[in-house]
Amino acid sequence: MRFGVGRVLVGLLIATSFFVITGCGGSGSSSSSSSSTSTAESGSPTEPAESSTAAMEAESPSTSWPSVGNDIGGTRYSTTSQVTTENVGELKPAYLEMLEPAGSTGSGSENNPLESEGVVYASSSSEDPVLGAYDAGTGKMLWQISAKELGIPKEEPNIGTRGVAIGDGLVYVEEPGGILVAVDQKTGKEAWKSVVNTQHVYAYSQPTPVYWNGLVYIGQSGSDIIGGLRGFVKAYDAKTGKLAWIFHTLPRPGTAGAKTWDSNSELKDGGGGVWTNPVIDPKLGLVYFPTGNPWPDIGGRGPGDEDYLDGVIALDLKSGKLKWFYQTTHHDEWDYDCAQPPLLWEHEINGEEVKGLSIGCKNGYVYELNRETGKPVTPVKEEPLSNSKSDPKAKALDEKMGWTKSNGEPLTEPIPVSNGEVTPHCASKNLLEPEAPDGKGFSYACAYMYYGTDHYTAGWNSASLDWQPSSYNPETGDTYYCSNVGVHGVKLKNFSAKETENAKVFPELEENGETAGEPRAGWLTALDLEDNGVAWQKKFPTGTECDAGSSTTAGGLLFMSDSTGKLRAFDAKSGKEVWSYQHKGLELRAPSIAYEDGGTEYVTVVGTLEGKAVLLGFALGAKEPSALAPKAEGVAIDAQQVFTTSCGTCHTLKAAGTNGTVGPNLDELKPTASTVERQVINGGGKMPAFKGQLSAGEIKAVSGYVAQSAGETTGNQKK
Ligand code: HEC
Q: Does 163-204+206-466+469-546 match 639-714 in CATH topology?
């Protein structure tokens, strides 16, 4: 039996698996015996857990992480305070576990794990994604089940899951093809399956479900460059998987919302995908979903504001009926959808206690709303499109295409008055040079511009404030946004096409239209709730993208991982970077979580290590898992095992205990890692080539291992 490193640290030997097997108590049940380091938590170890205890826990922030945003309000704030700005330097890797069975390659991608009652739940985002449960103190796998084992057909392309939900004794995940699956929380055995993606649209990602009070809430992604969707969100009965209600983000003809559209034909597949999870206020009885952009993305639609797209919808939890809708972009021609989940907070603003909601959208702006009414709590002003005066020709052309209000008047857009620039709102020479691809100069504009057809207009900063979840720390009163700065120039090819492929974009966007094809610079911004202005801001160099959102703790910390594979911690108050971790071959694209287990705080993230999906947990003063030890160059891969199986029959290597004689004795040869790598890839003489037999990661691992181990027992030089 393995013991959690954290327990060794506090001098206790409590097997987390006890709680897992018996399903007893909360993770804090061991606190009584580790009072010196643990934060108090109620619950007695002998009391059996209610099936929905974990989910109920999610009503407000806690020391576990039972819903995608910790609490169902999505603060991404943990009340854990063991790791602080002072001691975070001692934060070390504590466990590393594979999220997929040995031998498979995969990706951790954007997966947000959960923790409840001593168990971490996580999924991978591979071709055949795997859902699993892991001991919260050791990372040790308790069960795993793959999409294939669940009878889910392979889906191409499959971008992957973003997270899971738990409640009523079940774990919920959306699998490729848009199939929502519920499995038993203790065994991983299937309980039910339901098809969310009934329109069979091309979906980029499987949004994260959220469980609350007997229902599972989920939206449908899709509707972009590739094709349209009649957007919707759904609630399912958590026990049976039966559809409880559906709300269409694209209104039904004849309803109030439909009047904001030019024609009923646009309401068939005019967009409104939902890319991430909803958040919930159980007291108000409302669920809030962010809504996506119209389709076609640019052009091809008549005038109109186009409800309920590009904003937030507040729906009745039980009936799915619309309570309010706030639109952040009217008549979107820029791909300025709201992709990230909203954040719920309570804070005093202008002397009044406000039940607030913040939403950051791809227009680069953050809106603070009263979540009871949907009205802004910090000022927002309707403004004409940014270059309407400076570029009347482009304005006239684009208006011809339908870029107007329903009554033909020029478009206006809701711009927050604060100076909270979480991303630059305007393009300029120093953000996009040199000249436009047509040899002419760019015309520079801000967010929301008319394009025109005879030159490139720069200012398209879509995808800068994207799906990456934001966080809120009630102690600082700040919300935290992760954005990426990449400005684009756009020129329309013509202005009558009833299709989306009518824009020339520079620099070229990647195929899926979501990310800029050039490296972008990440910005991490703290916004002060009181005025929606910048409290502090970190700008990273180009190439260091803010890829995974953030999370924050009562220890005064803000965690963020970036595109270089670094997990960073900041002082949430000042923005000072106080810690970071990076490991060769480790990629991080998912937000981290923090929780307490057995009196120890863990900061845990899903990542990809040498082509394998992994769960990586950190704790104060932890002993590094051997798989991460610098000696094993190839990290997660068991290099010695690769050597014994693939090389040992022909080669002698004392460290591996092999004594083959077909090839040279490697202890005597003492090859460098690159020599071994070259030989293993290509083979030579009587030695077969291993390219295609072993993965690139395994080849790297075994090469490093041979180079380091050769001659080790004789104390010879290592290289
Ligand atoms: C079927 C037997 C066999 C297997 C399996 C085998 N080798 Fe070899 N290896 C040889 C032979 C034979 C040579 C000598 C090649 C030659 O004639 O140049 C050799 C050469 C080498 C060399 C020396 C290259 C040089 O440039 O001096 C290295 C290093 C090596 N092998 C590593 C490995 C590793 C690592 C593995 C496992 C991934 C492996 N070998 C698997 C037979 C084998």
A: no
